[in-house]
Amino acid sequence: MSTQQTTRTARSLSSIALGIGVAAVVVFVLGSILLALLPGNLVVIGVVTVLCYLLPIVGIVVGHNACRREGAQKSAKFGLILSYIAFGLVVIPLLFDIVVRLTQLA
Q1: Which of 22, 59, 64, 94 has the lowest CB atom count within 10 Å?
Q2: Measured in whole angstroms, how far is the alpha carbon of residue 73 from the centre of its chain?
Q3: Alpha-carbon 76 to chain mean position
Q4: Per residue in 37-55, pLDDT tens?
Q5: Quick one: angle between helices 74-105 and 42-70, nearest 10?
Q6: What whole-number distance in Å separates Cα of residue 59 and Cα of residue 84?
C-alpha cells in the first residue's frame, strides 16, 4: 500500500481531537447521571473516574498535536476546547474540596 492511499484513508488528527473532546464531555455528563442513579456501585465509580480523567487528557494531547501538525483547524480547536472544559469540570470540584478540607484543618 502506498503512502498516498494511507493518508487518504486515515482520519486526520483534527477529527480525532474533535471526537475525543465530544466523548469526554458526553462521558462526564453520562457518568454524573450514572453516579447519581447508582451511588454506591464501585464498578461505575471506577469506570467513570478513569474515563473522566483520561479522555480529556488524551484529547488535550491529540488536540495540541493536531494544531501543530495540521495547522489550527476549527475541528482541532473545538476538540481542544471541549477537552479543556471536560478536564476543568473534573478537576475544579476536586481542587475546591481540597481547599475546603485544608481550611478546616487550620
Answers
A1: 94
A2: 19
A3: 13
A4: 998 899 999 999 999 999 9
A5: 130
A6: 8
Q: Tell which residue, 16, 28, 11, 10, has the closest CA to residue 60.
A: 16
pTM for the whole structure: 0.80
Q: 3-state secondary structure string, the chain? A: CCHHHHHHHCCCHHHHHHHHHHHHHHHHHHHHHHHHHCCCCHHHHHHHHHHHHHHHHHHHHHHHHHHHHHCCCHHHHHHHHHHHHHHHHHHHHHHHHHHHHHHHHC
The CA-CA-CA angle for residues 13, 16, 18, to 5°, reads 110
Half-sphere exposure (Cβ direction) of 73: Cα atoms closer than 13 Å: 18
